[in-house]
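Lecture 7 notes: from sequence to structure.
We start with the chain below.
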Amino acid sequence: MKDFKIKVKRRELPYRITLRAMLKFKQLTGRDWGALEGNGITDLITFLWCCVWATCAVDGVEFTDDIEEFTGHLDGSVFSRWMKYLSDSNKQTVGDDEGGGKKSTGIEELIAFGTVNAGLSRGDVLAMTIEEFAEIEKAYVERQKAETYAKWDRVRTLAAIVIQPHCKRKITPRQLLLLPGDKAKKAAKGSG
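Predicted structure tokens for the same chain:
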């Protein structure tokens, strides 16, 4: 998603929804940003300020306004554009559950995933947009699936080697144990 610019005091300030902004919002309000729905204009303005603050920090843009000063310089046109941007961002799903729905994930869980599982620094995780984080999460899940498949493939190959001397006919690892990924690999070979 491209940057959104907000005009405040005749200056255009950059805005992105980053994990750092989500963390700042939680520090200020005690709630995750996912709890924004139905909590009024104050939370929306607070989250907007957090996003501008975080983006300016990452981009090296000077931003010293507190929330009250920032709010005093906003006009109505900013909100209609910003609400569309926020709505588009909400369509991005981070942490889908098994049922295909959107799972509520706290900012601490996202930071932990990025640092522990993906091996990123805390600063790198906090500077990411939701879209960037979703791509990291997707790549991690795919890597885990591939590693799990490779482990099971080694086990069934070893089992086939061990059992072969006791069989009259040649037995392949796939005949011994069919793995979920085998069907996808066979379909890919057949179409290519």
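Points to note: The CA atoms of residues 151 and 157 lie 10 Å apart. The radius of gyration is 24 Å.
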